[in-house]
Design a protein that fits this description.
The structure is a single chain. This protein has 19 helices and 21 strands. By secondary structure, it is α+β, with helices and mostly antiparallel strands. Among the domains are: 117 residues, Uridine Diphospho-n-acetylenolpyruvylglucosamine Reductase, domain 3 (2-Layer Sandwich); 225 residues, Vanillyl-alcohol Oxidase, Chain A, domain 3 (3-Layer(aba) Sandwich). Strand 9 and strand 10 form a beta hairpin. 33% of the residues lie in helices and 17% in strands. Bound molecules: flavin-adenine dinucleotide. The site of flavin-adenine dinucleotide has 35 residues, from strand 4, helix 9 and strand 11. Keywords: FAD, Flavoprotein, Membrane, Oxidoreductase, Transmembrane, Transmembrane helix. This is D-lactate dehydrogenase (cytochrome). It is an enzyme of class 1 (oxidoreductase).
């Protein structure tokens, strides 16, 4: 083990009184657990298991193997294919609590109308009995059931989703190993208990709201960096390793892990949302930096998606299937991550523009010119004004649309990049161009971008005021249009709202000592709106977000560039991708999690909405 990150280090949001207190439960009386035996073959997550899996998989999957062997299904298929085949060939039915013969499915997708509501058992007797089993697995100190403490796992001050009173777990369990997670899932599977995974708790759209109650698995104890392979430029970590702490550790060896979402986010949650951040322009998203995952499936089966080579064309790409799954297909208990060489030279420049259009045109020119900028961030005039009002930045800014550039590389390369960008900024009629000459100036210039979100948050007039940060992404040619239209909409609504974006599009060629690798970064035009509103203004804020999403889809964009759909944007998926694509995703969910135990209700609906629950498009 290289490092055992401290709890305090793991909960920075707590310092901002956004995290949950670490109250532990009072001892739970142990009771004799009555294990109900039932035929479960139709509700398992996999079929036969190939040989040669890791020892933990061997142990954890033994029960599963017996279960599979006892089933009527002689199909051999690998991972994802097996899962889909299972669903298609009749191994699936929803509501498996009822003992019934599985129907033979012949179709490739599952429309919502064909679903039966999931059958969970969250009765207090079942929870009590399960809790006793959890205590057996992880020990008393790692099981918590006090209402007040458990409620803090349902939402955060950042979340745009307000959970209903019932949407809270009954018990929070904190495992330390893959095997413990597997054993916990076996209990939940046998007892039909819904499960929500919790990592850093920084996701924004209600991702970890326990809509079905049941069990929350808090991964906080699984915070170890297990193995650093310096020569191979990869690292094996547990899911509660925080990206900033990982980078602190890696910097000692001149390495870094590029995805940079919210402060306090952890690898398990970052896989869950398929996050990115300011480094995405040059380095891509979480999808580009995960080599392999160890996953505990809904029935407790443990799978590993790949070995450690940086590329492989062996079988389905299960790693990517689990990235962005919001904890609905399986639980990440270990991740092998690619690493980059930490640039030994960095600089920052800031340019203000007369209009959003001129700022966007400048980004477009930089992209076309192929300039290797490390990051380009955009903030609109309102956001710059909010930063000034907040007073947390190192200087007072021109309240105009502003681009923040980061440069990285050798001193000569950085100089060259700055020169080209300065020329392009001038061509776009910029009002100013400031370039940092030393570390102090770098911090001063980047400080406005860093405090952007906090500054909006600080403007709350009342503790009950809400804060909503939401994102969409569009092709780069539509960037200026979506910003202009959204700004206009916010202005008319009377709400306080700033616009911030990770913008740009580029090619990045990184040369590693042992591995030569080139990858192309996607169009990055992720646009965030930070909205502040009172309870009375909630409908207005919802309308704004709805129209922003609609605008993005109409511009051939996406409803979320990096935050994930959570509870808020789930119903927009069909507008972006089409009903059939969502139906295919629903089939995938069924295949991996037939009982809908894992973060049920996220990504795809499994039950018809109530009247009025879904906004008119
Ligand atoms: C101030 C601030 C700034 C932010 N900036 C960005 C940004 O620039 N870019 C960006 O992409 N995001 C940003 N975010 C959002 C957030 O940081 C990311 O979504 C992040 O990836 C969430 O990680 P987490 O550890 O907090 O996950 P959580 O919120 O705990 O969980 C996220 C999802 O993953 C699931 N999950 C958690 N652990 C596991 C596991 N072990 N296995 C399977 N599923 C799991 C959860 O059930 C949930 O569905 C920001 C948030 C804040 C508060």
């Amino acid at each position: 083990m290289l490092k055992s990150a401290s709890r305090a280090g793991h909960r920075p949001l707590q310092a901002l009184s956004l995290g949950r207190p670490y109250t532990r439960h009072s001892p739970i009386p142990k009771e004799r657990v009555h294990i109900r035996h039932s035929r479960q073959f139709t509700s398992s997550s996999t079929l036969l298991r190939p040989d040669g899996e890791r020892p933990v998989q061997e142990t954890s999957n033994q029960g599963q193997k017996q279960q599979s062997a006892g089933s009527n299904y002689g199909l051999i298929a690998s991972a994802f294919g097996a899962a889909l085949a299972l669903a298609s060939l009749g191994g699936y039915y929803v509501g498996a609590g009822k003992q019934q013969q599985p129907a033979v499915l012949t179709t490739s997708t599952t429309p919502l109308k064909d679903m039966q509501p999931p059958q969970h058992d969250t009765s207090s007797e079942n929870i009590k009995a399960a809790t006793a089993e959890f205590v057996e697995i992880v020990g008393e100190d790692n099981v918590m059931s006090e209402k007040e403490a458990v409620e803090t796992y349902a939402t955060s001050d950042w979340s745009s989703y307000t959970p209903k009173k019932t949407e809270v777990a009954a018990v929070v369990v904190s495992p330390s190993t893959t095997e413990e997670v597997s054993r916990i899932m076996k209990v939940c599977h046998r007892r039909r208990l819904p499960v929500t995974a919790y990592a850093g708790g920084t996701s924004l759209e209600g991702h970890f709201a326990p809509t079905r109650g049941g069990v929350c698995i808090d991964f906080a104890n699984m915070n170890q960096i297990l193995k650093l392979h310096k020569d191979d430029l990869d690292v094996v970590v547990q899911p509660a390793v925080q990206w900033e702490l990982l980078n602190d550790e890696l910097s000692k060896d001149g390495l870094f892990f590029p995805p940079d979402p919210g402060p306090g986010a952890m690898i398990g949650g970052m896989v869950g949302t398929g996050c990115s951040g300011t480094n995405a322009y040059a380095h891509g998203t979480m999808r580009d930096w995960v080599v392999s995952l160890t996953i505990v499936l809904a029935d407790g089966t443990v799978i590993k998606t790949r070995q450690r080579p940086r590329k492989s064309s062996a079988g389905y790409d299960l790693t990517r299937a689990f990235i962005g799954n919001e904890g609905t297909l399986g639980l990440v208990t270990e991740a092998t991550l690619k690493l980059a060489i930490k640039p030994n030279n960095e600089s920052v420049a800031v340019a203000a523009f007369p209009t959003i259009h001129s700022a966007a045109a400048c980004v477009s020119d930089i992209v076309k010119e192929g300039v290797q900028v490390a990051a380009v961030e955009l903030m609109d005039d309102v956001q710059m004004k909010i930063v000034n009002m907040g007073g947390a930045s190192a200087r007072t800014w021109d309240e105009a649309p502003t681009l923040f550039f980061k440069f990285a590389g050798t001193p000569d390369a950085v100089k060259e990049q700055v020169k080209i960008v300065q020329k392009l900024v001038k061509k776009a009629n910029s009002k100013s161009f400031d370039f940092a000459r030393n570390a102090e100036e770098i911090n001063a210039l980047w400080s406005a971008r860093k405090v952007a979100l906090w500054s909006v948050f600080e403007m709350r007039q009342d503790p009950s005021d809400h804060f909503w940060t939401t994102d969409v992404a569009v092709p780069i040619s539509r960037l200026a249009d979506i910003i202009e239209e959204t700004k206009d909409d916010i202005r008319k609504s009377g709400l306080v709202g700033g616009i911030v974006g990770h913008v740009g599009d580029g090619n990045f060629h990184s040369k590693f000592p042992s591995v030569q690798e080139t990858f192309q970064v996607q169009a990055l035009t992720d646009l965030k709106a930070f909205l502040l509103f009172s309870e009375k203004e909630k409908r207005t804020a919802e309308g704004l977000v709805h129209r922003m999403v609609k605008r993005a889809v109409e511009m051939e964009g996406t409803v979320t560039g990096e935050h994930g759909v959570g509870m808020i944007k789930r119903d927009y998926l069909a507008h972006e991708l089409g009903e059939s694509t969502v139906d295919a995703m629903r089939r995938m969910k069924q295949a991996f999690d037939p009982l809908c135990l894992l973060n049920c209700d996220k990504v795809v609906r499994v039950q018809q909405p109530k009247p009025g629950e879904v906004s008119e498009w």
